[in-house]
Amino acid sequence: MIEKKSIPDPYRDRVHCLQKELSKRSFSGIFISQPENRRYLSGFKPGDPQLNESSGFLIIGKSLAILGTDPRFEGEVQSQAKGYYPFIYRKGLEASWPEIGKFLKPIKKMAFEAQALSFFTFQRLKKLIRSSGNSISFLPTQQLVEELRAQKGLREIAAIKRSLSITEEVFRQISKTLRPGKTEKEIAWQIKQNIHFYGGEDQAFEPIVASGPHAALPHAEPTDREIKKGEPILFDFGSKWSGYCSDLSRTVFLGRPSERFKEVYSLVRQAQLQAEKGINAGLTTMAADALARSVIDKGGYGKYFKHSLGHGVGLATHELPSLSPAKADPLKPGMVVTIEPGIYLPGWGGVRLENMAVIRDKGTTVLNKDQSFYNF
User: Fold this and answer.
1) Would you say domain 11-149 falls under CATH 3.40.350.10?
2) What is the pLDDT of residues 225-261, one digit of tens each?
3) How far lies 161's CA from each of 149, 171, 344, in Å?
């Protein structure tokens, strides 16, 4: 058996919580392949470069903690994943598998992450398990670790706040440089550079810079279009710090704001403020979404609010919970969510305003320091 006592906190506590959840479901082990879940449970940082390429996996069971990877990441296992047994498959996974097959004998039912494991890899692993002489049932689970990740600890919230402060500083600096004639792509490139300049590890996702009619597309990609006076410009970007993401949306108007912009912007801001004040632990995700959606509906723009109110943020930019009109999951203390209502008008543009907040027993704590909102 491989003891987990030497795994340092916070990872030991997380593994313990996962083990309790596995026991509730009558599982004696789990195969972890999702990159953010690997990091959350072990500290192992390497991501997966592309869909068909993995940097490794975890196998966790009672008194069992294995991190499997190839020789490229042997150094990272030793320095980052303290307490995990390093299974380095030097001759390929198939040839090396017998090395850990003996440790899996106590496992009768092993879970795997259905949303993260390809069918090819699933078949490959089932074959390996059979080849080692283990009669293990290999069964799917969904978002088991993600549910643990949804509630953040103090260290995680501190990392998110640091990431958000970097993102907000980038927005402040970019706002000073906006001039007619600059292209969306130029501004997006500036954002990427500034994220690193102001201390970010990386961008959390590809920046959105959408001007004029492009701002009517919630997930517009930056183009060679030049920004112009008399149009809205929608920004959506984030940075990473210590692995944790931030997510910020702001909409500005180049020149003197038009009456239409004032109307739409004011409505979106009112919807955001109502949600920030009304959300708390115990409220459902559907009810949270409705707080903002009702404001926009009453303002006559309901059909132009085209996405959910928000989503969880942590090691991934989009994670649980989803503040959606489609599902009524209970909100819990410590969840970090975005609150980002928007209105998108084809042919004209759009407005989205996004803050990040921590859910508390009573209300929320908005993490944003930036208050560069228009007051019309």
Assistant:
1) yes
2) 999 999 999 999 999 999 999 999 999 999 999 999 9
3) 17, 15, 29
